[in-house]
Amino acid sequence: MRLLPRRAHLRHHHDKALLLKKYYKWILWSALSIYLFFSSSSSSSLFRPLPLRTSLPLKTTPRALAEARQLSSFTTSSAAAALRIFVYELPSSYNRDWLSNPRCRNHLFASEVAIHEALLEYPGRVFDPNEADFFFVPVYVSCNFSTPNGFPALHHARPLISSAVRFISAGFPFWNRSRGRDHVFVASHDFGACFHAMEDVAIADGIPDFMRESIILQTFGVSSPHPCQQAENVLIPPYVTPDIEEQWPAPEKAKRDIFAFFRGKMEVHPKNISGRFYSK
């Protein structure tokens, strides 16, 4: 009879911990969004917001437009006050050595590099890990262009990240303290932290056990439940180089001979039901 109150007490603490985790995930998403999308520093921002325009005179400002203007008024100092991030200084074999290939900085999955470089200049970056709210683990796993078709190979991703986790857990107490719950990784390639380009293999492999409690910044996202989303994750866009405006004219000024272009897997039955052939 005395076990029931204890179980209720444990359930209360469990629910409270889940609520706190969701709250900090929201704080992380908000702060990163504010900094990365609305930073006024061109050297550290990844994207520049487009100016808000309307072609019709308005007697009252629409609510969505007013909220967007209010959001854009946030400064990087506001983001810094909301979130303090410690960036691990890992050996260069985990990140910087991969930059010997220039493609590592500007291909479709290069957000793992761009986010790392942005956080190094982030006003809320702290150098004392005891002051940090979150810990960023900068490991580049999408820069191994060793396949015959030139696509990034991901077979090294799991052992490389596992090695990084062993490195930080041996030198710092913070991973073991939270079991990685306040640690952030980037998985900017196909199927996120499942680390495989083919969905059937990615599902079979799943997310590594040691990453299941961490926060994943990933480009993969679907609305239905998926094994490769069974970890705390924040959806981010694929990487586009900041100088895209210089390379290509604005859409409203360009004369188009191609309306749309598809680049991805063609999962068409019966020849390619597995999705193993890419479009040209």
TrEMBL record:
<dbReference type="GO" id="GO:0000139">
    <property type="term" value="C:Golgi membrane"/>
</dbReference>
<keyword id="KW-0735">Signal-anchor</keyword>
<dbReference type="GO" id="GO:0016757">
    <property type="term" value="F:glycosyltransferase activity"/>
</dbReference>
<dbReference type="InterPro" id="IPR040911">
    <property type="entry name" value="Exostosin_GT47"/>
</dbReference>
<dbReference type="GO" id="GO:0010417">
    <property type="term" value="P:glucuronoxylan biosynthetic process"/>
</dbReference>
<keyword id="KW-0333">Golgi apparatus</keyword>
<keyword id="KW-0812">Transmembrane</keyword>
<protein>
    <submittedName>
        <fullName>Exostosin family domain containing protein</fullName>
    </submittedName>
</protein>
<keyword id="KW-0808">Transferase</keyword>
<keyword id="KW-0328">Glycosyltransferase</keyword>
<dbReference type="Pfam" id="PF03016">
    <property type="entry name" value="Exostosin_GT47"/>
</dbReference>
<comment type="similarity">
    <text>Belongs to the glycosyltransferase 47 family.</text>
</comment>
<feature type="domain" description="Exostosin GT47">
    <location>
        <begin position="82"/>
        <end position="267"/>
    </location>
</feature>
<dbReference type="InterPro" id="IPR004263">
    <property type="entry name" value="Exostosin"/>
</dbReference>
